[in-house]
């Protein structure tokens, strides 16, 4: 059974950093497309960053390019998201997602392509 557990969220001031982790069980992250998504109150869920399992080329939302970095630890079966230079508009619940499909380009950031989801971890950025 695929399970995803996020951790690492918290409250930081603008300009600060956080590292989110997504522990995976029931499958190997090296064989799945993995992504980070976020949802702020009253807004739709949006793709933030994602990695495929064949090309290993990351995809990022324009709003986070140059500030967020997604990576996989295949040995420990963990997906990470390093958040730097955080802004108040980054405040949201952050979710980890996984799927066996392989998606190219910005399709990696499409929430509907992912079948397995974690419960989320909250990130709050104050100005």
Descriptive account of the structure:
The chain has no helices and eleven strands. The protein is mostly beta strands and 127 residues long. The strands form two sheets. Strands 2, 4, 5, 6, 9, 10 and 11 form a seven-stranded mixed β-sheet that branches. Strands 1-3-8-7 form a four-stranded antiparallel β-sheet, with no helix packed on it. Strand 5 and strand 6 (58-60) form a beta hairpin.
Radius of gyration: 13 Å
Estimate the global geometry from the Cα principal axes: globular
Amount of beta strand: over 45%
Task: Flag low-confidence runs.
Answer: none
Helix content: under 10%
Give the SSE string. Answer: EEEEEEEEEEE
Structural class: mainly beta
Query: Mind summarizing the main beta sheet?
Result: 7 strands, mixed
């Amino acid at each position: 059974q695929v399970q995803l557990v996020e951790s690492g969220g918290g409250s930081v001031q603008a300009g600060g950093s956080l590292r989110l982790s997504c522990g995976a069980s029931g499958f190997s992250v090296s064989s799945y497309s993995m992504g980070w998504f976020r949802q702020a109150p009253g807004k739709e869920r949006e793709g933030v960053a994602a990695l495929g399992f064949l090309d290993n080329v990351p995809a990022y939302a324009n709003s986070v390019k140059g500030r967020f970095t997604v990576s996989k630890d295949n040995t420990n079966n963990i997906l990470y998201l390093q958040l730097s230079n955080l802004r108040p508009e980054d405040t949201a619940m952050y979710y980890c997602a996984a799927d066996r499909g392989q998606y190219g380009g910005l399709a990696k950031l499409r929430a509907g392509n992912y079948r397995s989801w974690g419960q989320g971890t909250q990130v709050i950025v104050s100005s």
